[in-house]
Amino acid sequence: MASREDFQRVDEYIWEIPQDYRDDMRVPARLFADTELFDAAFGDRSVEQLINTATLPGVVKYAMAMPDFHQGYGFPIGGVAGIDPHSGVISPGGVGYDINCGVRLLFSQLDREQIEPFREDLMDALYQSCPSGLGGDGRVRVSERELENLLVEGANWALKKGLARREDVEHTEEEGNISGADPSKVSARAKERGLSQVGSLGAGNHFVELDVVQAIYDPEAADAFGLRERQVVVQIHCGSRGFGYQVCDDYVKGLQSAVQKYDLHLPDRQLVCAPIDSPEGRDYYAAMACAVNYAFVNRQVLAMGAREAFEKVLAGKVADFDLRQVYDVAHNIAKFETHTVDGHEMELCIHRKGATRSFPPGHPEVPADYRDVGQPVLVPGSMGTASYVLAGQQEAMELTFGSSCHGAGRTMSRTAARKKVWGEDLRDEMEEGGIAVRAGSMRGFSEEAPLAYKDVDHVVDTVHGLGIAHKVARLEPLGIIKG
Amino acid sequence: MEKRFEEVEHTADIALHVWGRDLSELFANAAYGMASQLTDIEDVVLTDEQEIGLEAKDTEILLVDWLSELLYRGERKHHVYVDFEMQKVTEKELQAIARGGPVKAYHRGIKAVTFSELEVVQTENGYETTVVFDV
């Protein structure tokens, strides 16, 4: 097991394990953390998992963990790796089961005082219009043929179906549609699971949250994103549901034989991978892209559900009850991006596992109306605590292949959280503190207790200090919906 | 059959350490442990019987296949399987009957069974392994 002494401090927030620490490392490994977050790294297996990531064929520069890193499976959560598509591999374990799990943020024109008399009704309406919990069906059921179109077209499918607005699509990473999706590379079982779950939240740490903008740090960026103090906003956190889990499951199993075929030596079977430039690697990418598009549509359909809830409760009571989209970011994904390595532009397959894209001002992939201030980076905090909106910065291109943190990051196991907190007590405590709660499982609720997470303020201050993204706004919860 | 498993600390997900005197018992215990994460096992009335036959390249893939198959069949019907008649389990092949039924309340969902550092190890007393579930 690696210890503190194995790291060299490169900068205030950068800690590095040199490549010669372990024979199978191909590049150094970097942790981005302040002293306190760095010290917390040694409580679980996240450092080991980060070092394992540095052994992947084709990995460039260094393997990285963002400040909210913690133990996952295969990659650590918070893990980022840039891989050379000519000599390197693509790893389903480096993306995870919930392919394109991500966050969407919508803003209203309402102040918190305006919704206060209707808050409980609004929570009930959101709970109804955004289906949550296990095995629950989504808002939309699609035919097998429609599913194929959805998988290829992503958010554009939703647009054609009247389930999206043009501005929603424009304010989504990759405009809600990555190319290369091929439904023929997806198993019948994944498709079957996908038919009924479009527009569903699921369980676990997924949520819909009603928030208020409590502070603005960067007025120019906030103005570009449509955000101001006291304003009511809605966050949606979920991914590709059973469809994505099945795609990952199929390829984690299927690629086990590719590991032998291509003579790859991996320290952990969950890092299973195939050369990007191989039939197996191309097939996984084509299937994963389908799941990425599925998740964009899933969050889009849920956004329409949130709009429906606002209309149902607030129509005739306030002048403008509309919800408009700030942005939608993926935090479990592998995709091709152009980055500069040693002064040369290079296409890389960027794996982000519990990390968001954080592109700077001026980047062509940032929507035109945000191009002066940078891409919105959405960082939900732990349940019942603050969330942040950040803006991507140039330092992210230099340091982290245009990536930033994706949340607070867990620090305590579910078992330990459950021993310390009763779900019912936590719910009562939050409601006394002014946060409305709608939750399916109280056990699941207790496992997501804030004490099981790192302090999001601390994580975001580290990201801001590193300069990979700057603080724009801080959100505080008014109501939480969980499966 | 002795049902033996314990929850192991894992920051993000659920890890179960499972033992068995032979592979049949190991596989049954792993499935039983997984079911106990999903719901209160005592509350499940056995109304559903599923025959499961699997082949795999090695024991770890077979174990992941077995648990994933139970999750998938359960998700379709909103059932959890809690009783396992292992007819045959070798290193690469499994024949079993799983029995279960509808669930009053789920504790949680399990997204998938992972290969995270997965290794089925033979010991003096039989077999053991640790399985990490993505939740």
Fold blueprint:
The complex is a heterodimer of chains A (483) and B (135).
Chain A: E1 8-11, E2 14-17, E3 29-32, H1 35-39, H2 46-53, E4 63-73, E5 75-83, E6 89-90, E7 102-111, H3 112-115, H4 119-129, H5 144-153, H6 155-160, H7 166-170, H8 188-195, E8 207-216, H9 219-225, E9 231-238, H10 241-254, H11 256-261, E10 274-275, H12 279-314, E11 324-330, E12 332-341, E13 344-353, E14 356-357, E15 376-379, E16 387-392, H13 394-399, E17 403-404, H14 414-420, H15 423-432, E18 436-439, H16 442-447, H17 456-466, E19 469-482
Parallel strand pairs in A: 3-4, 18-19
Antiparallel strand pairs in A: 1-2, 2-3, 4-5, 5-13, 6-10, 7-9, 7-11, 8-9, 8-19, 12-13, 14-17, 15-16, 16-19
Helix pairs in contact in A: 4-12, 5-12, 8-10, 10-12
Chain B: E1 5-8, E2 14-20, H1 23-38, E3 48-55, H2 59-77, E4 79-89, E5 93-102, E6 112-113, E7 121-123, E8 126-134
Helix pairs in contact in B: 1-2
Distance between the termini of chain A: 37 Å
Whole-number average pLDDT of chain B?
A: 94
| N- to C-terminal distance of chain B | 28 Å
Order of helices and strands of chain B: EEHEHEEEEE
Structural class of chain B: alpha+beta
% residues in beta strands of chain A: 25-35%
Broad shape of chain A: globular
What is the radius of gyration of chain B? 14 Å
Give a quick account of the main beta sheet of chain B: strands, pairing sense, barrel closure.
Answer: 5 strands, antiparallel
Q: Which percent range describes the beta-strand content of chain B?
A: 35-45%
Oligomer: heterodimer
Secondary-structure-based class of chain A equals alpha+beta
The beta-strand count of chain B equals: 8
Radius of gyration of chain A: 21 Å
Chain pair with largest interface: A-B, 47 and 32 residues
By DSSP (H or I, 4+ residues per run), the number of helices of chain A equals: 17
Q: Major β-sheet of chain A, in short?
A: 8 strands, mixed
